[in-house]
Specification:
By secondary structure, the protein is an all-alpha fold. The chain has two domains: 37 residues; 71 residues, Cytochrome c-like domain (Cytochrome Bc1 Complex, Chain D, domain 2). It is built from five helices and no strands. The longest helix is centred in the first third of the chain and has 34 residues. Bound molecules: heme C. Heme C (HEC) binds next to α3 and α4. This is Cytochrome c. It holds the Pfam family Cytochrome_CBB3. GO terms for molecular function: electron transfer activity; heme binding; metal ion binding. InterPro entries: Cyt_c-like_dom, Cyt_c-like_dom_sf.
Length: 133
């Protein structure tokens, strides 16, 4: 009787050990993925500002989209942004067809629409996980 109990306890301990070590492995995974450099998700205008900087739109349209070598695109409409990004423009703008999806286009439009409003994001460092406003 005594012996059976001990054996049962040992078996239980062993199986608990397995469970807890597999739990530890799982936890380890989720810890490492949550500490990976994942950018904080911003609102649509913020994500659009990120793309505007990351895709170098500012290089031609100016830091705040008011124009440079390319035209002022403040408050551009979604259809225009979509069309231009898919097709490119003859006079100096490539197509971004392979680099943006519909959500990106909606976010870029939200950013362009936000310019001049209190919601306008003005940060310059798109690579920051948590950019200042
Ligand atoms: C290499 C320079 C360059 C880059 C980079 C660039 N553009 Fe352009 N973009 C232009 C030029 C030049 C025009 C105007 C072409 C024309 O008049 O036919 C234009 C036109 C546009 C228009 C239409 C404006 C209008 O009034 O018709 C939009 C919208 C636009 N760009 C958005 C963007 C966005 C968003 C990005 C980044 C994803 C971007 N552009 C990147 C040069 C650039």
């Amino acid at each position: 009787m005594q012996r059976t109990l001990i054996l049962t306890a040992l078996a239980l301990a062993a199986s608990l050990g397995t469970v807890s070590s597999s739990l530890a492995a799982d936890t380890g995974l989720s810890i490492s993925s949550s500490t990976a450099p994942v950018a904080q998700k911003l609102d649509a205008a913020g994500e659009g500002r990120r793309l505007f900087l990351k895709l170098n739109c500012y290089g031609c349209h100016g830091m705040y989209a008011t124009g440079g070598m390319g035209p002022n695109i403040v408050h551009a409409e979604r259809n225009d942004v979509h069309e231009v990004l898919m097709r490119g423009e003859d006079k100096g703008m490539r197509s971004y067809r392979d680099y943006v999806n519909d959500t990106d286009i909606a976010n870029i439009t939200a950013y362009l629409q936000s310019i001049g409003t209190p919601n306008e994001p003005t940060f310059k460092d798109w690579w920051k996980k948590t950019p200042p406003k």
